[in-house]
Structures are given as structure tokens and as C-alpha cells.
Amino acid sequence: MKLYCLSSDAAKPCFVLSFKELLIMLDCGLSAHSVLNFLPLPPVPSTRLTSLPTYTPPHINDPLLEGELKECCGRVFVDSVPEFCPPLDKVVDFSQLDVILISNYTCMMALPFITEDTGFKGQVYATEPTLQIGRFYLEELSEWVCAVGEGAGEARRWKELVHLLPPPLSQAVRPRAWRRLFSAAALARSLARVRVVGYDERVDLYGALDATPVSSGFCLGSANWVLRSAHEKVAYVSGSSTLTTHPRPINQSALRGADLLILAALTQTPAHNPDHMLGDLCVHATLTLRAGGCVLCPVYPSGVLYDLLECLSAHLEGAGLAQVPLYVVSPVADSSLAYSNILAEWVSAGKQARVLLPEEPFPHAALGRAGRLRQARALHELPTSAPAEFRQPCVVFCGHPSLRFGAAVHLLDLWASNPAHAVIFTEPDFPYMEALAPFQPLSMKAFHCPIDTSLNYSQANKLVRELRPRELALPDQYALPAGTGAGAGVASRPHISVDVPTVIVKRGAARAAGVRRRAARGTLCGALAASALPREVAGAAGGLRAAPLAAELRIRDARLELLPPPAPARAARLHWSALDVEALVRALAREGVGSARVEASEASGSDSSGAGGCIVHLPRHDTLVHVERNATHVFCEGRAEVRQALRRALAACLPHI
Amino acid sequence: MPEIKITPLGAGQDVGRSCILLSMGGKNIMLDCGMHMGYNDERRFPDFSYIVPEGPITSQIDCVIISHFHLDHCGALPYMSEMVGYTGPIYMTHPTKAIAPILLEDMRKVAVERKGESNFFTSQMIKDCIKKVTAVTLHQSVMVDNELEIKAYYAGHVLGAAMFWIRVGSQSVVYTGDYNMTPDRHLGAAWIDKCRPDLLISESTYATTIRDSKRCRERDFLKKVHECVEKGGKVLIPVFALGRAQELCILLETYWERMNLKYPVYFALGLTEKANNYYKMFITWTNQKIRKTFVQRNMFDFKHIKPFDKSYIDNPGAMVVFATPGMLHAGLSLNIFKKWAPYEQNMLIMPGFCVQGTVGHKILNGAKKVEFENRQVVDVKMAVEYMSFSAHADAKGIMQLIQYCEPKNVLLVHGEAQKMEFLKDKIEKEFSISCYMPANGETAIINTPTKIPIDVSLRLLKAEAVRYNAQPPDPKRRRVVHGILCVKDNRLSFLDIDEVCEEIGINRHVIRFTSTVRFDDPGPAVKTAEKLKGLLTEKLQGWSITISDGNISVESVLIKVEGEDESTKNIYVSWTNQDEDLGSYILGLLQSMVQ
């Protein structure tokens, strides 16, 4: 078993596991940090952004670099369509992948990079909500980036001169591997490959393995994958949560006792408690609204958004602000909100109980009916009752959390100068100050309330201890010493430290992990079993019984069957322990083969053990029996009957089956 | 030989009251727990005393599986769990769990409040019963206990209908419940993978029917309804609140919209809205088209179909009314029928099957006068049409399902005896597998091959694979492995000899025999060896014979020629004890050659 790590972002993992001659990709996360180095793509032309000064590195006069870089408040940005950092493609040949298993929709954004135009021929498995919501995320991204970015030139030259640029651009990791987003067509083709599975469904992978998605409690349809053969078990735990939110709770028992546990996508904001953050957000929002300001929440179109809507609407009602409209602006807002309410089988027990009434599991349908919640594909499509300038206080949820594309760019441009308004960051994927950098100077308030419900380090440590895997595999980020060591005296210890043999994988690295296989599971036909007649093996521990067996082997669909052999085939007899020569002589006499003469062989003279090492002469039958400790060699020139008598005598003297 | 035993307590050569006992591998499973609509006495529930004459029933049944919410499949469940006292696990899908209690409650009201029956379960009992249910999702593999595993497949018949695959050890059974192999306006078609069960228990409601195209039936239906209302007649369509009702509503709704008709269409019972809400929320269980378009328009928001009020019965003029229950055995549909039956311009359309003993069944059989309990006699003058819209698989569909899952045996339930007989013949002929059709209370016993799980050593397999792959490819060649079968703690493993020795800590003792044959053959030893090889190849066809350094090896028997220059060569034949047969055969061969 070998584990490859293809992603540098531990929150957007991508592993490949080679096991039982299969290459299995676990998740294909797309790291979007790279987009922070680019200028925002406004949905409508922005004079402020176009009028930013051009940047040229000192002492460089490169005409090719012309217009590629711009400066805003001391930071340099690339003026081009944003690019993403897909998983490494040189370590594993994607055309050789057999299976891709996806754990949740935040970890599948690189799928088109892997399945399209790479010769990929395998299967992709994901749960139904993962596929649907993943589709929303990807379509939203594609609509924003591709629609605006079409025709725009690509900035390339700066990648050659990265070392001359100021940080953070100079610290960009392998910018040449950054890629522009896939086309909508490639996206559709890629998603069409995904096969939908349900929780606890055993998916047969080419007869070699069973893969089972089990609930991970992180978001709708999020799954941990358990790979199982008859003897081995690998658990892939990615994006799990032990908190109680809207999805089905985590299924821990299915992960227990694995031979290898792979841990990925832990929280990105270990210092922030999601519950407190949700409370803070409600308070900040209320204060801003009271003061007549608007609130902007840059969010993804699903996931925590549902919790935000539920909590904030209840909180505002309690604060007497029930009349404040909530807007969700996204090309997929309609679908996302409608879809969440038909996923009754994927939500927590509490929400499921509502369905039996029957009521929608999420309150946002009711909010929509009451007119408090409105959604639109884009800002200009918002109902006319919503003033285009948003003079009245309101809360807008829209993407993208990186603030580089989507409706949020326009709203931020519009509101940045007004200190009454506020932007509240909830998605943990991007450092908020960096996200805001191209909008500086900023007068509106900015709050950081990251809500990341996936496991934090102490929860993860506890989980691993409870699950008791034989071996643990981690991306190197989780094994590094925690923090930057503000308290210099405090010994920094690894983030995940459990008393389990641990394999640490780095981006681009491969490590051997897990058990060595020794046996395969098959079935034994009843008739053959009945003919075997196993006997007790004297001296073996634990009452082992054994019998020699010859069987016809049938392998069909990688399943093994043992059937009765075509002809009554000889079975391999097994004799063991040392031969007692005197007993042999006696046994031979009983068989009517007498006049045996025993003499020590030359070799045994020097053998201090004295066990074996002698020759039995049977002169009358022209036969020599050469006895050693672990072997007996019969030189028989006599008739066949003598040989048979010898075999019987030997069998009588040696334990055998 | 292990057996699978099946005893129908209901639905054996019969439709209604589905309840089948399945026992295999020491587990007893009850498949469905339905009631019979045609009876009003104790015969309406399955005979649970068959399972255990008296005493607790829970210890006798490992689990109950309900395939869908129709009352002939789940109607007796509260009776069993609350009155007979079963406390074990009960499984059904999420939509079934949501909808079944509504239908049960509806039925209870009709039975208790209208007919005044006593000794019936109460509302509270229905609620308590449903609380005990474990809901499952499609394809989820549920371990009931360590040995018993179940898995649901989509069955199409009604919202949430499922087929169940059940496995104990190496034995497996598929129970279809009711299913439909053709997609319709709101549901998809049943689907199952090639799971090769030992037994397929299939419904056979339409065992002999091969239905004409659905399109024709729909057109026919719409034409008849339209003609009737044009003449000012009233159309009564008895349906069950959930299931076909929605299908027909969608059909009428789209027709009314297309033809721009204004005749009122009513759906009786306050249930409508609630029922349609369930459909909206379980849209993942409907067909592809509805799922794709639900964001823009939910198919279950009807524009033309309005709720019915009892006072409308005597309204003049044309109307179409969907009323419950579907077999005209009680309730509103029967009341409306009584009022409308004596008039010729009216029409009754029965869209589904009617169980024997119900008014619906009588009328469909051509009864022109129907007598009721209170001596009331009603003349049936209205037109009566039977149109099968119930979503059961027809003969073609059943054969198709058999093809899909490749069972080793088939057992038919939920159908009428003569029809089953016909289908049974057909299945046995076409697939050459045995087919059973036990009557209620009769037990069918099916033998299954024994298959024991065993761990086969990889070393053994790899060595075999090397040998096998070295030979020219031949898909028909049998692959034989030799090793030692070990049994320890009831677990079997198949190991290489050396592995066994390591495993149990013994020193192997190898016994080898060598014999000499003298052969007069002048010339170099290599020539002699070549000659021998030629001879052996001729005599031992199918064995691998190789020669290297003048040594010939036939499988594991070694043959060595010695004496380089002498004219008489010594030929040594050597083999281990286990190759005695081959060794002595070759020795004999060489000896006879020499003479």
C-alpha cells in the first residue's frame, strides 16, 4: 500500500492510494489561495480598479511585463484572469487512476482538471448532495470567472520574474503550474462521470475492494470513506465534524479499528470556536443594521449559509429587526435554496422529524414565503422592491469569499467608503485581510467571524485515540509544531500527536503505509470441504486442524472460488519432525522388510546434535535409506512393493497429514 | 445443504395481505405485514399464531421489512407491534415511514368510526409503532445484526417503494414488494444490479398481462373522461390518497391545461395538500424529469385540481372527482358511488386492482345491482371502465427483472394462482431455473450450495499465477492449487506447506525417493537426455516437461542421466513422497523402455 499526496493545501486535500493493484484518488481539492494575487474581476467595469497605478519592479525594463502588474496601497497584484492551483499532475498518471472517491463538495473542485483531457478512464463516486451542491459551487465559479474573463489576455511574463517581485507574490509556490479555470463544457462532462452513492452503500471496486461512504457530519452529504477487503481496512477521514449542525451526525463506529487512517481537511481556524463566531456575527450584524448600515457576507452558495440564514433570521427577529430583508445573490441561489429542502434523508434527526409533519427541513423556505428572504441570480436581477443602491439596511449573502470575482466585488466597491456598512467574513478559506487588500483604503467595518465546523486539533486527537487505527497518515501541515511560538519558552508540540505509528506525507511525496497483505478471501465449495477431513495437528497451539487439499481455482470478477479438482488430484502430504530410526526399523520389520542395518553416516560424526544423520541399509532389497534431521532420501533399486512398504513405514513413524 | 424456507402468511397465490416469512441461516425475517381489504373479520390480518402459537413473538422474528406504504403491505404493522407485541427492528424507507402512518390512520378511521369496529388499533398505537421504525435510504447496506444484512433498491411502484436484498452468510434473497419496470409520469423504473441472489421473491399481479403501451392507455383514459364531462356526466375515480392518484392528477392537469378545459376537477379529502407536500419533499424519489425541473416548477402544485367538499356531491353539471379509498369498499368513494351509480351519463373509472370481496371487485365483474349491509340496493347504470394504471410489472417486466438480477430460483407471490402457474412455466422454460409458488401457510424449501469463506494464502496464489501465466493462454485450462487446509477457531485458511510449518512451528520432513535405470545407449549423455525427453513428451501429454543441463524435469520429478562416455548410462529418477504417482509412472515407463 502506497500513499501519494498531490495537494499542498491540507484543507483541500488530494491523495492517491495504491492498494491491491488499484489506484484510488481520495478527493481532488482545488487550492484557490492563488487567486488572492490577482486583481478582482468586477461584474461591471470599475473605474477605481482600472485606474490603479501600474507596477514595475525596480531596475527592470521588460516590455513584456507591461500592464501585467498593478499596485494598490503598497501591494502588487496581477491584472489578469485569476488562476488556481490544481493538484500535482506529474506524480501520478491520471489516465491510470481507477477510482476517485469524493468526501464532500468543498473537496471536489479540481475534478475537471483530473478527468478531462487527461485520458482518465476510471469511476468517480460521490453522494448525491455532494454532486448537486458541488455542481452549484463549480457552476457559480465558472460563471463568474469564465464569463467575465473570456477574451481577456493572460499575464504570463510575471511568472518568469517572480524572484524580483515584492512579497507575497515572490513567495508564490510554483506559479507556472497555476491554471485558468476549466470551461463550462469540461465541467459538465466531468460532472456527468460522477456516480451517485448513498451513505453506508457498499461500492464494489473492481471486485478487489469495497468502498463505503459514511456520514462525516460536516455538511450535507459529506462522507468519510471506508475501504475494506476481507482482511484490510483503510479509513479516509476528511472534513468531519463532531458538532451538531444541520447535516447528519458523524458515524464514528464505521471508522473504528482501521489498519490505516488517513486524516485530512481539519479546521483552518483552530483558534476560533464556530459557535462563538456565529454569536459574534449576529451581534455585529444587528449593531450595523441598527445604525442604518448594510451587512455584506461573502459566502459560498451552500453549507454554512443555511445555518447563517437560520440563526441570523431568528436573531434579527428577536432584536426587532424582522423587517430587514435578507438577500442571497448567486447564479445558483434558487437551486441551492430549493435543493436543500428536498434532502430530507441527509439532514440531522431534528430536521428529519420536521419532514414527517410535513414541513421543510430548513426554515429558509418559510422565510422566502414570508418575503424576508429573497434570492437572485445577480445584483441587477434583485426584485425592484429592493433599491439598487441598498439605501435601506439589509443583509446580502453573496460570493465569492475570496473577493476576487462575483457580486461581492461590486458591492464592496460600492460600500467601501461608507463607515456605516460592514463586511463580515465567515468562510475560513481565505485570510480576510488579504482578501480585502485590493479594496484598501477601506472605511467600512470589517469583521472576521470564521465558521469552520470541521474537526479542530484536540477533537481530531481525541477522535484518533478513540478510533484506534494501527497506523495514521497525515499531510505534513498537521504534524508541524503548532503556532509560530509566541511564547518562546513553550516547547512546541505537533498538532496531531497520538500514540500511533504515523506516516507523514508531503506534497509530491509517496510513502509506504498500512499492512502487508498475506491472504485473499475466497469461498470453498461445500463438496470439497466435506472431502477434506482435517485432522488435529499434534503440538500445534490452539487446536489447529489441517488436511492436505488440492482444489481447482476459479477466479471470476476478481472473486476467488475453490472447487473440487477436475481429476482426483494428488494432495500435497506434509510430514514433519525428526525420524526415529529405531522406530523405522521396527516398522519395516512389521511390513516384512527385515534385515535392516543401521550405521551412522560420515557427516553425523561431527554433528554434535546427534539427531538423525544415519543410513539404513536394506541389502536384501538393494535399498539405502539416508536419514537426516529434516529429510529422508530413499535410494531404492528394488521392486515397487518395497517402496510402498517403505512409504507406509515412514508414514507410521512420522507425524503427518 | 443449507436451505432457505419461505412461508407466505398472506399473498401466497393471492393478492392482498402481503406477509411472507423467510428463514435462512438461522434468521427469520418477515417481509411486509399487510392487511386484506376484502375481509372485515380476523382474516384481514395475517395469522401470527402460525409463527408461535402463544408466547412472545419477538424472539422468533429477527426483523420486519416493509416494502412500501400500501395497506396490503403495511396495514397489519401496528397490530403486530402494539397488539401482538413484537418489539424487534422494523425497516422501511424514509418516504414510507412518512406516509404510512397517514394511510393507517385513514384506514383506522374508516374501520372504527364508520363501521364501528372494535378491537382495532388506536391512533396512539400507530404513532408508537412508527416510532419503532428504522428508516433506510436506497442502497444503504444495513447490518441488522452481525450476520443479517439488508439493502434497499428503487422499485418505482409508489413513492418510496423499495425492493430489498437480504443476505445471511453466503445466502441471499431479493424481495421485490410491488414494482414497476416502466417509468411513468412521476416515478422512475425499478432497478437492481446483478446481485445473483439464491432466490428472487417477486410479485406477480399482472403475471399474464402484457400491457399495451402506456401512451395508448393514457389517451384512452383522457378521451373517456373528456367525452363524459362534455355530455355533462360526472366521473368518479376511486383512488388511494397517495400513489396512482398523483400520477392521474398530473395526467389530468396537463390535459386540462393543454385543452384549456374548465370543468371542475376535485380531489377529495384534506389529505391532498399534505400528500402533495410529501411528494414535494421527497422529490429525490421521483423520476429524472421532475427532479430536474422542480426548482422552476413543482409538478405537485396543481392549478386545476381543487379540494372536494361533501356538499358538491349533489351539485349539478359535469365534474371529475378523485375519491378515496380505491377499491370502493368504504368511505367517501363509496358514498359518491351510491349517489351517482343510478345515472347513465355518469362514469366510474377504476384505475387499479380490486381485491375480492370489495364493491369494486363486484362491479368490475359486471354486477348490475349491489346490495349493502343495511339492505340498501343500488342499481349500477353508470358506465364502468377498468383501466389498469396501477404500477405493477407485467409479465415482460417480471422477466426483465429476472434477467437483471440473475437469481438461482424464483418464487412468485402476490398474484392469482392460475396466472402464476402460467408465469411459472414461462420462467422455468426461459431461464431454466426452478420456480415456486407456495399457497398461504405452505412452506417452500430451497436448497442452496454450500459456500464456506476461506482465506487463501497470497504466496500460494502467486506461485500458481506464475505457473499459470508461464503457459500459453487458454481460457479453458483448469487451474489447480495444492496446499494445506487449516481450520482454527472455526476459520478456514488455505496455505502453502512452508507457511503451515512456520505458522504452527514444526519442521517439515521431506521424503525423497530415487531409483536408477540402466540404459545401453552409446553417445554423449545429452543425446540420451534428449531422446528421453522426446519419449516422455509423447507419453505425458499435457504435462510441462523441461530440460536444462541434461536434467529433465517433469513437473517436480527429476530425471538425470549419468555416465558421459560409458555406453551404459545410469538414469536417476527422483521424486518426493507426494509425487509418488507420477514418479512411479515415469520410472515404470523408463524401465519398460529399457527392456
TrEMBL record, chain A:
GO-annotated biological processes: snRNA 3'-end processing
UniProt entry tagged with the keyword Iron: no
Start and end residues of each Beta-Casp domain: 305-436
Compartmental location: Cytoplasm; Nucleus
Keywords: Cytoplasm, Nucleus
Pfam families referenced in this protein's UniProt entry, alphabetically: Beta-Casp, IntS9_C
One GO cellular component, as annotated: integrator complex
SMART domains: Beta-Casp
UniProt xrefs under Gene3D superfamilies: Ribonuclease Z/Hydroxyacylglutathione hydrolase-like (3.60.15.10)
The keyword Nucleus is assigned to this record: yes
Protein name per Swiss-Prot or TrEMBL: Beta-Casp domain-containing protein
UniProtKB/TrEMBL annotation, chain B:
UniProt domain Metallo-beta-lactamase: residue ranges: 16-210
Record keywords, A-Z: Cytoplasm, Hydrolase, Metal-binding, Nucleus, Zinc
Cellular location(s): Cytoplasm; Nucleus
Biological process, per Gene Ontology: RNA 3'-end processing; snRNA processing
Cofactor: Zn(2+)
GO CC annotation: cytoplasm; nucleus
Keyword field contains Lipoprotein: no
Presence of keyword Cell cycle: no
Family matches, as InterPro entries: Beta_Casp, INTS11-like_MBL-fold, IntS11_C, MBL, Metallo-B-lactamas, RibonucZ/Hydroxyglut_hydro, RMMBL
GO MF annotation list: hydrolase activity; metal ion binding; RNA endonuclease activity
Membership in a protein family: Belongs to the metallo-beta-lactamase superfamily. RNA-metabolizing metallo-beta-lactamase-like family. INTS11 subfamily.
Entry protein name: Integrator complex subunit 11
